[in-house]
Amino acid sequence: MKQKIIDDATPVTKGILRGELQNYPTKKELRQILDDKLQNYSTKVEMGIAFENLRGAVRGDVEQLLTQFRSEMFSRFDQVVGELAQGREDKLFIDHDIRQLKKTDEDQGKRLKKVEKRVASLN
């Protein structure tokens, strides 16, 4: 819009201003345009509610994953502890068997010496 040059001596009246400003939107019209444009966007309250819902969903998912992970870890630990307990039990039996074999070996050695002495005395 071209600017009209008004003589400085002429006072500006409401009529002149209204005529000049009639091509510009009013505050009410601007607010209506803005409301129409912003109608598709969420409000601050709606965004807060959506954020809280998302936070709750994420927290639930994380808790579920942690529970599952902890359960799997305890299952694996139970297996390892079971294997360790079985190994200790096996070691006890093996140690007992070794002691029995050593005792038997010593007894056999004593018997063998007695037999060798008798055989030597017979010759």
Summed up:
It is built from three helices and no strands. With 123 residues, it is an all-alpha fold. The chain has one domain (14-40, 50-122).
Write a structural description.
- By secondary structure, the protein is mostly helical.
- The chain has one domain (14-40, 50-122).
- The protein contains 3 helices and no strands.
- It has helices spanning 14-21, 27-38, 44-122.
- It is rod-shaped.
Keywords:
123 residues, rod-shaped
Structural class: mainly alpha
What is the helix fraction of residues, given as a range?
Answer: over 70%
Helix and strand run: HHH
Oligomer: single chain
Distance between the termini: 145 Å
Report strand %.
under 5%
Main β-sheet description: none
State Rg: 50 Å
Tally of individual helices: 3
- Nearest-integer average pLDDT: 88
Write the layout of secondary structure elements.
Elements: H1 14-21, H2 27-38, H3 44-122
